[in-house]
Fold this sequence. Notes:
By secondary structure, the protein is mainly β. The chain is built from one helix and 14 strands; from the N terminus they run αββββββββββββββ.
Amino acid sequence: xxxxxxxxxxxxxxxxxxxxxxxxxxxxxxxxxxxxxxxxxxxxxxxxxxxxxxxxxxxxxxxxxxxxxxxxxxxxxxxxxxxxxxxxxxxxxxxxxxxxxxxxxxxxxxxxxxxxxxxxxxxxxxxxxxxxxxxxxxxxxxxxxxxxxxxxxxxxxxxxxxxxxxxxxxxxxxxxxxxxxxxxxxxxxxxxxxxxxxxxxxxxxxxxxxxxxxxxxxxxxxxxxxxxxxxxxxxxxxxxxxxxxxxxxxxxxx
Length: 254
């Protein structure tokens, strides 16, 4: 997509300019419970998704690179198996860029910055391994520092979804959609090595369809074996569509 190409070029130029003035070193002590703390790490997760008529199993790799304390780039690639189609292959690839121009945890309003998520339809939709659609979701993230043990990180995103590549969808139902999502990431710090992340999500997938509202819930439990290695359990429930995902894995901070 030409628009995606120009967007990526613009983001790279912004990174190059701003990084000239940003500090390149990270804090010596990791605080991984805050989404607005930028670190370089590799996520490794084994996952299971229950959908109507099929179960999808797989491995999801997520490489997040902190260019500077203000710039973060994420690349995600899943390898999936669908037990209904009996097919295995790469799912939809994800690329994310996050810019954080403001961060001051000593204040109630602790951080603010824009981001953009891009999902490419690299997974074979006919094999049940992908959505068959481009998704582009620019958004803004803020941080509210309620206490040392609990903070709020609301995220408001606009969501563009392209037409599907699935030839079985009739033309009258295969259309571009414009919508939005609102979520509040809420880390609860139990100790220096244990925290949970509760994330309620409300989506309005299609502005032209009043019935496209949906509620989802994410829960993350994370335990630090040591400062640079964390074990993770994750659950996501999309209750309207009856889709449930469970992941188990570990994160290595580099």
